[in-house]
Amino acid sequence: MIMTSLFYLIVFSCAVFSKSISTIVSISKQNRWAYLSKFNLGPEIGYWQLRAKLVNPIASDNIALEVMTHIDYEWDSINQLVFCQQYDKEEVREKTLSLLPNGDWTDFTHGELARNVFPHTWFFTVSSCNSTLQGKYKVKVELTIQTESGSHISYESYFLTYLYPASSILFAIAFIQCFINLQNYLQQTEKIEKKIFLLCLTIGIELLGIISETTHLWLYSYNGIGMEILSLFSQFCEFLSQLLFITMLILIATGWGIKHDEFPDSETFLPIGMLMLFIHIVIIGYSKAHNEDPGKISIYDGMPGTILFIFRLSFWIFFLYCAANLYQQVKSKTRTFLISFMIFGSIYFISVPLFVVMSWQIPKYHRWFFIISSTLCTHFMGYLVIMCQFSSKGSYYKISNLSSNVLPGKDL
């Protein structure tokens, strides 16, 4: 099941090349226009070039194809028009090229995106309003967009090229410290502590995802394509690391290390975890396949976001249920820890939905950066809190089997 999902991710990755776009659109008498892509441009000039060809050659005269760019404050009204009847009344920027009947590529047509004081989103469409169309034609289009600085990165992703490298350093430090703690515990008890190992694995997987996304963005900024499979792998690593971390929080809430030392039955948790991972992989693939939709900003938009929110809130409710159930079975010292642990877990579980809701009050071109930066900060702080709880100064350490397994004078 997981391998099948990964296969579909690779297929999706081959269809989402941008900001050098290669796509096929359909033009017919009933539907004379088609949406291509969008690009967020900062307060600078943008440049684009486009060429097209008929997928199936025809024995008729050339077909005129109009290429148009629309700025965001025009888009909502243009998108609702009977396009060919009313588009000429709008302030659109148009370039025309002639599709060759034999199916050869046209020459590149070039255009410019005007400089504005504030960032704006530009939408690209093609139409054939001035040609006599006899049937349905499939047109392959290649579009390349870049800023005047030569970068293919759109404005909402520009700051991510700095955020991800900085995050990789912080997460690397956290991973190294966690690994040192694991080694120290191994030396003191002559066994690998599963909880510390699981935390190290979680941090390491997210670090690997951050490095993958950093590499993709750097390549993307230079060639407009990058390696989309690295971006897909990065999101897969993020979801896997969060699934592991959430599982660890829930296991602790059930009394792992407090009432029982053994790892819970894998026959119960493993199928559920595999199912959740499969669903997340499908969501990633679906979101990537619709990455160029006009209203798409992040993976939390639309149906994928709704599903992710439901999962997150369901995990939160189950976490609170387990912690409350454990609260009734333990002594006062452990109850004090559980109260603070429930508060910490609740903040962690509702943080991402809260950040997404908060982002609705932010301009669209800043939303994705806000969500990513807030989420990474939450993950990092969550790892630090649990790492401290696993140290000799942590409340969890003092009430769990971590302290009982270590000889006196050899605390972490």
Automatic annotation (TrEMBL):
- Give the GO terms filed under biological process for this record: G protein-coupled receptor signaling pathway; response to pheromone
What Pfam families does the record point to?
GPR180-TMEM145_TM (PF10192)
Give start and end of each GPR180/TMEM145 transmembrane domain: 170-385
The keyword Transmembrane helix appears for this protein = yes
Q: Which positions make up the signal peptide?
A: 1-18
Question: Keyword set for this entry?
Answer: Membrane, Signal, Transmembrane, Transmembrane helix
Transmembrane residue ranges: 162-184, 196-219, 239-257, 269-287, 307-327, 339-362, 368-388
InterPro entries on file: GPR180/TMEM145 (IPR047831), GPR180/TMEM145_TM (IPR019336)
The family database entries (PANTHER family) matched by this protein are listed as: INTIMAL THICKNESS RECEPTOR-RELATED, TRANSMEMBRANE PROTEIN 145
Name it: GPR180/TMEM145 transmembrane domain-containing protein
This chain's source organism reads: Blepharisma stoltei
